[in-house]
Specification:
The protein is α+β, with helices and mostly antiparallel strands. The protein has 2 domains: 93 residues; 208 residues, Beta Polymerase, domain 2 (2-Layer Sandwich). Strands 1, 2, 3, 8, 9, 10 and 11 form a 7-stranded mixed β-sheet that branches. Strands 4-5 form a two-stranded antiparallel sheet. The chain has a two-stranded antiparallel ribbon with strand order 6-7. Strand 8 and strand 9 form a beta hairpin. Helix 1 crosses helix 2. The radius of gyration is 53 Å and the shape is rod-shaped.
Length: 335
């Protein structure tokens, strides 16, 4: 095709620049040559148009290929970006759900704690009590706490010396838990734990809540009678509750199930009332009773009282009953 174009251009140059030497051509010959030149010129123009059209077609094909390649790469990167964005959103959603679940659990825990203080129906529920772990306090107590601890232990010793039912819980030395400060010194409350041991012929069994080892609000203390036949044979001072009929036990003090329990479980309300009565009765036998006046304070779960001296200065004390858990230094308290 290029050779045809070259030939046509050469021919046109020849006819458009006629020779200046020699004889001039006749008119018919000149007309034919002019017609042939015009035909060649038309053919040349057609060939040029075809070449240009082919170049355009090939150019558009190359452009289309380039655009297709770019489009394919664009779709790939868009898909990659969507996948990355999806995983980022999933991770953010998981973190948000985890934080919300944690806040929800904390809120439920706080509501349970609030219910333990505000729900009056819990007072009458004999098989339930709030339970906590209480580590044994360090013995280098502050001056006032040490004085309060000694005073309370003198009071508990006086309680043990009272004529009483032999099959009631045995009070152990008090442990200072802490103090709750108020606006004035008069409003400060000193809190002490009074551990209990089972009486003869009885055993304590802690039944933890539904959360396994973690102590929960529905934990309870079950009482169980034990055989005292060996002591009965050797000492003869008791009758076995398990192996004697009821009519033979009528002259013996009642067992714990008949005094401080509701069914087989310790009643926190009855236990608190029992300790309150003991403290009121035993205070007169405490040496400090000559200088301090005791006033019992109303409470359905604790033994609370206030001591006032001659200068009208007073301090408040709160005694909590509890049992030791296994062989550890932790206690389950009745609240």
């Amino acid at each position: 095709m290029v050779s045809e174009i070259f030939f046509a251009l050469t021919f046109l140059g020849l006819i458009q620049s006629p020779q200046k030497v020699g004889d001039e051509l006749d008119a018919p010959t000149t007309a034919r040559m002019q017609q042939h030149a015009e035909e060649l010129q038309a053919r040349m123009m057609q060939l040029l148009l075809e070449i240009e059209q082919r170049d355009q077609e090939h150019g558009w094909a190359r452009v289309g290929t380039l655009l297709l390649s770019v489009l394919q790469h664009w779709q790939f990167w868009v898909l990659t970006g969507e996948i990355v964005l999806f995983f980022v959103l999933c991770r953010m959603l998981m973190k948000f759900c985890h934080k919300r679940r944690s806040r929800t659990k904390k809120g439920i825990s706080r509501r349970k704690d609030d219910d333990s203080e505000e729900d009056p129906s819990d007072i009458l529920d004999a098989r339930r009590f709030v339970s906590k772990y209480l580590q044994r306090p360090v013995r280098n107590l502050g001056g006032m706490c040490k004085v309060v601890e000694e005073l309370v232990n003198n009071l508990l010793a006086a309680c043990q010396g009272l004529p009483r039912n032999e099959f009631m819980p045995q009070l152990q030395p008090a442990i200072v838990v802490g103090s709750t400060s108020g606006p004035t010194e008069r409003d400060t409350i000193y809190r002490l734990l009074v551990p209990l041991n089972p009486p003869p012929g009885h055993a304590f069994h802690l039944e933890l809540g539904t959360e396994g080892e973690r102590l929960a609000r529905n934990s309870c203390l079950r009482m169980e009678l034990q055989c005292m036949c060996t002591r009965e044979r050797m000492l003869g001072d008791v009758l076995c509750f398990l192996h004697h009929p009821e009519h033979e036990l009528k002259d013996q003090d009642p067992n714990l199930l008949d005094t401080l329990c509701c069914g087989s479980y310790l009643d926190a309300w009855k236990a608190a009332k029992w300790l309150q009565e003991l403290v009121s009765e035993a205070w007169g036998a405490v040496p400090q009773s000559a200088q301090l006046q005791l006033t019992m304070l109303p409470s359905t779960r604790f033994c609370q009282f206030m001591l006032t001296n001659a200068s009208n200065k007073s301090l408040s004390i709160e005694l909590m009953l509890g049992v030791k858990r296994d062989d550890s230094d932790t206690y389950l308290t009745f609240e």
